[in-house]
Amino acid sequence: MAAHQAITFRPSFNGSVSVEARSDRLSAHAGVLLLREIDERLGLLSSLADSLHDPRDPARISHPLVELLRQRIYLIAAGRNHQCDADLLRDDPTCRLAVSQSRGVTPLRSGDSATASDGLSSQPSQSRLLNILASLDNLRTLRRGLFDSALSALRAEGDRSRIGRAVLDVDSFPIEAHGHQPGSAYNAHYGCQCFHPLAVFLSNTSHFLDLDLRPGNVHTADGAVEVITSCLDRLEEIAPVAAVRGDAGFPEERLLHALEERSVDFAFRLRKNSKLEEIAQPFLRRPIGRPPVEPRLWCHEATYRAQSWSRPRRVVIVVQETPGELFLHWFAILTSWNPVVRPGEQILEFYRARGTMEAHLGELVGLDPALSSTLRPKSHVRGIAPRTSGAGRSKEEAERANAATLLLYAHAYNLLNVARRVYAREVAPESPLGLRPHTLRVLLIAVAARVLISGRRITVVVERKTAAVWSKLWRGLNRLRPVAITDSS
């Protein structure tokens, strides 16, 4: 006898339509299977989980650490970035398949056997994961793992990813805070209460190498020397030559000296001041002739030494003329390159390319990082009032929890970036790296599917056009050749 299907409602606009509740295994996020395939081929999260310390009692663990990591990072990549989404999707069949360590049909079994699964972890389990990751040692491991994920993806692409010069973009950006989040502060430049993270980005492949969550009121270059030099030391494994570029907040003597000691070239914009105004003044003259119809610019060589610098350095003065405007505009770029090797026009072109990194920072912020760890004590645990009334997280623990959360978003971004690179090569070579994470989600991850079990086989049914795109992606994934990462630090 067929099971009775309850009719939820019948729309008034079309009486032939009815909405029913059925027990079929349906999913709206079948693309998480692609994320697991990328993760599995590169060994990203399994390697990261092996490096993390799990203080839980093994006899009482329902969900291994690697499954908790996969669930959190895959859901962030899929746009379900709040912890409460773990409860909503813990029974989603494709999410269970993608996250589970088990093979066969075990991930889809319910509590009717000793090998059954009770679904993915709940929101409280995800909250406890954050507590685990927020320890000092695990937080350092999470940051090293971000670099490892970029390195693994780069090596797995083989000859396609060979780079003669690694270009590091460094920048800071705001993440607005709501309420009294520990570590947040008012930043006058951005005009809001925010965090002020520092990011290091491998421009060659669009991967994040490091991400340091800082208080909202710190200087742009705070901690930049240590973060950048650490990345440069590890990049020697894959690129013998490197270059660094950034905006006007970074050219301080400690950083410039550290880069020059390593023979690393750089290009930084400089803030205007009276001395630079004096140097630029002779160049602010239009040539004789009619005013142009199109904008034009000129690059002039100069030498400049800031008061805090140990010696004079090369500066390129860029003069811009805009039709219809009375005055010329100008700005200065500090660089270590010899003018014979790289003239001013090439320095300008190199510096302007950092706009791509700024767009990718916007993409990370577009993932909507939910930094919300507070000092608030727990009011209940699994619906029961706690036996003791503690003070909740300390200020330092809350700050580290927010730092761990932001790093999880960066890991999700790097995972999406691998999918983007494979998609660009296999599906849309005419527009390489043109897809934003939101578009990737719509095309590849937010995919409706029906999951069927027949004996010991699982079939995931998707629409024909989706299957055609996936087949091309799988062809690209088959070309990835992972190489083990050894941390020499």
Q: What would your notes on this structure say?
A:
The chain is an alpha+beta fold and 489 residues long. The chain has a domain at 24-130 and 408-477. The protein contains 15 helices and 16 strands. It has helices at residues 32-42, 44-51, 65-77, 85-88, 93-99, 123-133, 136-156, 224-235, 253-261, 274-280, 344-352, 355-366, 395-426, 437-445, 464-477; strands at residues 6-9, 19-21, 26-27, 165-172, 175-176, 185-187, 192-195, 198-202, 207-212, 241-246, 265-270, 296-304, 313-321, 329-335, 449-454, 457-461. The strands form four sheets. Strands 9-8-4-10-11-14-13-12 form an eight-stranded mixed β-sheet, sandwiched between helices. Strand 8 (198-202) and strand 9 (207-212) form a beta hairpin. Helix 2 (44-51) packs across helix 3 and helix 13 (395-426) packs across helix 15 (464-477). The longest helix is centred in the last third of the chain and has 32 residues, at 395-426. The model is unreliable at 112-116 and 485-489 (pLDDT under 50).
Offer a few descriptive terms.
489 residues; 8-stranded mixed β-sheet; 15 helices; 16 strands; disordered C terminus
User: What's the N-to-C terminus distance?
Assistant: 65 Å
Q: How many strands in all?
A: 16
Shape, principal axes of CA atoms: elongated
Q: Kindly estimate the percentage of residues that lie in beta strands according to DSSP.
A: 15-25%
Main sheet specs: 8 strands, mixed
* Uncertain stretches: 112-116, 485-489
Q: Helical segment tally? A: 15
CA gyration radius, whole angstroms? 26 Å
- Helical content class: 25-40%
The strand order across the widest sheet is: 9-8-4-10-11-14-13-12
Structural class from helices and strands?
A: alpha+beta
Mean pLDDT: 87
